[in-house]
């Protein structure tokens, strides 16, 4: 399957499609072969992109919110019209199934639509001082140029989740997608350009030298915001770098999502939910269920039913419409999953299905269900990012809550059980999101307000205003 003709393979810099200093290959994870090559941005390109973004930002911010909203609305309409191309590019370069790719493309459109609606509702606040003699007016203003760094697992949604609120707020952006999946971001840049985003407002640069790129960009004082989605390790490094520049950051990092099945859960529903929370996107989601904490009275039954469903998934290239489980992103990812499975089996976990590498080209790992997984094994403590479901039997609700919270991650969780009992368990979980009798929790509208924090690191949760406040600063005026 070839790249659609409309898909750009050059960078978007100040409204121009441009090359860089050399190129690097983009691999198809279903085959391990290159799809195409894209430019490697030079340090000059980084400076030019920031120049362009800084120049364009003031004029963009000065536009009436309604005009910014209309650009985003057109972007929504274009993503709907080009959903097939967008899905195909994602299936090609990321390996996700066409079904998952179409769902992501639809989800992408929702970010543009939601923030086209939010762009016209940027408010402020009026309060009285405690003495009652003064008034405090808080205005919201765009923060300026935002540097956006995105991961490969949802190459379209992670980009638009950052671009749409930034543009709504009146910011301009320099986006650097991860080198595994640059093509989706370039196609999104084209849709935004076609939607009327002015030159310089959206710049997308590609590189396989992320460290160099980011160090250059962060040392430019005109960058006022760093928005990063990716692994906790890289996030930690970036926070340190950002601190040197006293930079505003948003960090969306890794997860170790517990999927709790209570004694009184409907097992059919729980298995159905697990099929959404686990093998979707090959298990490569920050919101994926990482550990299944199942009441001991139903753990075996749950394991058997989940194994039957996951074992029946048809493995193949993302672009084949019959495929239900695509490849992992790269060889390193397969090695990492195999290593965690092997280490867990070595300390007592039992494989119900899978747990052995596949002998085929491309970066595949089979659907795997493990039971009797030790609580301190790699499976239970590290982010898996693959189609592996480790099942840990728990004694009671108390045991489930304690185990669920025994992690440094606090991103997503799932609870299956009766409403009253499920709610009681849900409110004790130290996480940003809980799916109660639901295996899918993401929704653009959930990004609103102070509670939508998804840094993924419970102990370091920062309660920041997500969106569009994410890209706004508050100016206080005492009158
Ligand atoms: P990653 O951390 O390897 O890369 C993410 C981004 O950081 C990419 O753009 C990459 O080029 C850049 N990067 C990598 N190394 C860098 C360095 N040394 N300096 C500067 N930039 C660097 O993450 P990934 O493997 O692409 O994505 C998977 C991770 O993302 C998982 O941990 C997953 O949980 C997380 N994730 C989180 C969310 C969320 O909303 N919390 C959403 C999706 C993915």
From TrEMBL:
Pfam families: Aldedh (PF00171)
Stored InterPro entries: Ald_DH/histidinol_DH, Ald_DH_C, Ald_DH_N, Aldehyde_DH_dom, Aldehyde_DH_Superfamily
Keyword line: Oxidoreductase
GO biological process: gamma-aminobutyric acid catabolic process
The keyword Oxidoreductase is annotated on this UniProt entry: yes
Record has Phosphoprotein as a keyword: no
GO molecular function: succinate-semialdehyde dehydrogenase (NAD+) activity
Residue ranges annotated for the Aldehyde dehydrogenase domain, each copy included: 19-446
Protein name, per record: Succinate-semialdehyde dehydrogenase / glutarate-semialdehyde dehydrogenase
């Amino acid at each position: 399957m070839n790249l659609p003709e409309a898909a750009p393979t050059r960078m978007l810099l100040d409204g121009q499609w441009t090359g860089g200093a050399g190129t690097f290959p983009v691999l198809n994870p279903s085959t391990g072969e290159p799809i195409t090559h894209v430019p490697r941005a030079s340090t000059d390109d980084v400076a030019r992109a920031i120049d362009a973004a800084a120049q364009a930002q003031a004029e963009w911010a000065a536009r009436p919110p309604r005009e910014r909203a209309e650009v985003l609305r057109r972007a929504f309409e274009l993503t709907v019209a080009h959903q097939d191309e967008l899905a195909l590019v994602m299936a090609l370069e990321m390996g996700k199934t066409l079904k998952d790719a179409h769902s992501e493309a639809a989800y992408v459109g929702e970010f543009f639509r939601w923030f086209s609606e939010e762009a016209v509702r940027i408010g402020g606040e009026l309060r009285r001082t405690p003495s009652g003699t003064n008034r405090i007016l808080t205005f919201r203003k765009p923060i300026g140029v935002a540097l956006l760094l995105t991961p490969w697992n949802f190459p379209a949604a992670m980009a638009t989740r950052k671009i749409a609120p930034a543009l709504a707020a009146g910011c301009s952006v320099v986006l650097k997608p991860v080198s595994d999946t640059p093509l989706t971001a370039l196609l999104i840049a084209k849709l935004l350009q076609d939607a009327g985003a002015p030159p310089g407002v959206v710049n997308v640069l590609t590189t396989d030298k992320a460290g160099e790129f980011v160090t250059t960009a962060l040392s430019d004082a005109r960058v006022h915001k760093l928005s990063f989605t990716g692994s906790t390790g890289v996030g930690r490094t970036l926070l340190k770098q950002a601190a040197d520049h006293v930079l505003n950051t948003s960090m969306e990092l890794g997860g170790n999502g517990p999927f709790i099945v209570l004694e009184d859960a409907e097992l059919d529903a729980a298995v159905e939910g697990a099929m959404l929370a686990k093998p979707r996107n090959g298990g490569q989601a920050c919101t994926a269920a990482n550990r299944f904490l199942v009441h001991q009275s139903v753990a075996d039954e749950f394991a058997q039913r989940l194994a039957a469903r996951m074992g029946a998934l048809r493995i193949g290239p993302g672009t084949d419409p019959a495929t239900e489980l695509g490849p992992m992103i790269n060889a390193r990812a397969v090695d990492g999953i195999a290593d965690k499975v092997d280490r867990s089996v070595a300390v007592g976990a039992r494989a119900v299905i899978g747990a052995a590498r596949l002998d085929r080209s491309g970066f595949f790992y089979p659907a795997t269900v493990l039971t009797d997984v030790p609580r301190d094994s790699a499976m239970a403590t590290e982010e898996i990012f693959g189609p592996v479901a480790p099942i840990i039997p728990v004694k009671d609700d108390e045991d489930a809550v304690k185990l669920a919270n025994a992690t440094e991650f606090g991103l997503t969780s799932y609870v299956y059980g009766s409403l009253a009992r499920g709610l009681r368990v849900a409110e004790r979980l130290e996480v940003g999101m809980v799916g109660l009798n639901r295996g899918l929790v993401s929704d653009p509208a959930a990004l609103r307000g102070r509670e939508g924090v998804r840094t993924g690191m419970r102990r370091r949760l920062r309660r920041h205003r997500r969106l569009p406040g994410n890209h706004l600063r508050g100016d206080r005026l005492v009158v």
